[in-house]
């Protein structure tokens, strides 16, 4: 059932990704603020991570996922309202709530790992990530037709698709509420032996302590944070970059679809590689792919094909980093602390990506799209150094991680 909800949730999120920067430019009249709309969505995802983690810790995955999808649907409606009344603050508030849909999709990958052992954890996470492919690839390409439905109405064509996103989020919430039974987190917790301190280890503070106590958990947290930040910072400004070189909405949708296909379509391969060859090897692959993507996209200029290839590799590198990092994080902390640690992970990576997205618009406006890509590549250096250090300290057996 997580697969079905991911398809619907991915559809809703992808429509918003494709149009958010252009919508901000339309409402404000300036390109410099275009990065704030997707950044607000990322910030909303980050801010909701801790409350959702707390809810899941006490009540299970199902209530947290349902609530996130409901908030995302409400956010989609607010985005439309903010556009109609030309209120940028209301638009940003709606985008922040819209980010709850992304939060649900991110948490679902951990739900898939609740009931599997470390030797299959990478593949379990990647299966749920892969399920997002259908909705995420279709979403940007139906954004323009979905907007045309509202032609002649008070709702602008660029904002109308957010109503369809809201419907997709509502359907995803219904699927989870009705069909995700038994709850995977509560079941895993019931099956796992717990010591007398198990309840205390479920708190967020204990989750932070669990990460601090494990070098591998620190590397995992750094991997998902940097991979996500580099990807978001470059991706959110690509539609503006393409538009500045004469690309239309249809071409922009195709490029974003290729990027999202890279993010999700090959995730089963990344999961298999992480289980077969180890998390550290796939983290190294992620660094290489993301660096190559930044080089290609940053030097593309008006060559739309090169930009598209760079964005595809950007998505592929994100997939490798997200799956290997998420599996490594789950491997490296005790079961009773995992929900809190996973919430901390989503908070950290989305807060960092929010800052990256907010500054991306300013960087592009002041220095250009090429320097933005160079900065994104530079962010990867600490992760590469940490992964190399850990690998030199001892070989990692696939699926079994030293903590």
Topology order in helix (H) and strand (E) letters? HHHHHHHHHHHHHHHH
* Total beta-strand segments: 0
Instruction: Summarize the biggest pleated sheet.
Output: none
Amino- and carboxy-terminal Cα gap:
32 Å
At CATH level 3, the topology is Growth Hormone, Chain: A
Number of helices, where a helix is a run of at least 4 consecutive DSSP H or I residues: 16
Helix content: over 70%
Task: Please identify which CATH superfamily we are dealing with.
Answer: MFS general substrate transporter like domains
Number of domains: 1
Mean of residue pLDDT values: 85
* Outline: globular
**CATH architecture descriptor name:** Up-down Bundle
| Quaternary structure type | single chain
Q: Which structural class best describes the helix and strand composition? A: mainly alpha
Which stretches are low in confidence, meaning pLDDT under 50 for 5 or more residues running? 397-403
Rg to the nearest angstrom? 20 Å
Which band does the percent of strand residues land in? under 5%
Describe this structure as you would to a colleague.
The protein is mostly helical. It has a single domain, classed as Up-down Bundle (Growth Hormone, Chain: A), CATH 1.20.1250. The chain has 16 helices and no strands. Residues 397-403 have low confidence and may be disordered.
Question: How would you concisely characterize the structure shown here?
Answer:
81% of the residues lie in helices and 0% in strands. The chain has 403 residues and is mostly helical.
């Amino acid at each position: 059932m997580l697969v079905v909800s991911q398809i619907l949730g991915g559809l809703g999120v992808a429509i918003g990704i494709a149009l958010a920067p252009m919508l901000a430019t339309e409402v404000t009249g300036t390109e410099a603020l275009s990065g704030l709309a997707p950044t607000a969505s990322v910030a909303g995802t980050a801010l909701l991570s801790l409350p959702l983690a707390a809810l899941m810790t006490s009540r299970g995955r199902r209530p947290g996922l349902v609530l996130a999808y409901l908030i995302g649907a409400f956010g989609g409606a607010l985005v439309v309202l903010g556009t109609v009344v030309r209120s940028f603050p209301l638009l940003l508030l709606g985008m922040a709530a819209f980010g709850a849909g992304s939060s649900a999709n991110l948490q679902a990958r951990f739900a898939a790992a609740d009931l599997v052992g470390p030797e299959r954890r990478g593949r379990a996470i990647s299966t749920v990530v892969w399920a997002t492919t259908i909705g995420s690839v279709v979403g940007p390409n139906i954004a323009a037709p979905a907007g045309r439905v509202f032609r002649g109405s008070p709702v602008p064509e660029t904002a109308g698709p957010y109503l369809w996103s809201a419907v997709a989020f509502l359907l995803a919430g219904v699927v989870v509420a009705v069909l995700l039974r038994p709850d995977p987190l509560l079941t895993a917790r019931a099956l796992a032996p717990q010591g007398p301190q198990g309840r205390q280890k479920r708190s967020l503070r204990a989750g932070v302590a669990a990460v601090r106590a494990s070098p591998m958990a620190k590397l995992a947290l750094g991997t998902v944070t940097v991979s996500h930040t580099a990807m978001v910072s470059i991706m959110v400004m690509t539609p503006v970059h393409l538009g500045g070189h004469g690309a239309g909405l249809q071409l922009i949708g195709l490029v974003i679809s290729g990027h999202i296909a890279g993010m999700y379509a090959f995730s089963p391969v990344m999961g298999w590689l992480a289980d077969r060859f180890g998390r550290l090897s796939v983290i190294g692959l992620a660094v290489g792919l993301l660096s190559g993507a930044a080089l290609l996209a940053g030097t593309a200029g008006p060559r739309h094909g090169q930009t598209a290839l760079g964005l595809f590799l950007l998505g592929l590198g994100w997939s490798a980093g997200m799956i290997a990092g998420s599996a490594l994080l789950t491997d490296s902390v005790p079961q009773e602390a995992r929900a809190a640690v996973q919430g901390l992970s989503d908070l950290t990576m989305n807060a960092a990506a929010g800052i990256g997205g907010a500054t991306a618009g300013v960087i592009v406006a002041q220095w250009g799209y090429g320097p933005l890509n160079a900065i994104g590549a530079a962010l990867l250096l600490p992760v590469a150094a940490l992964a190399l250090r850990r690998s030199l300290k001892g070989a990692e057996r696939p699926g079994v991680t030293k903590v």
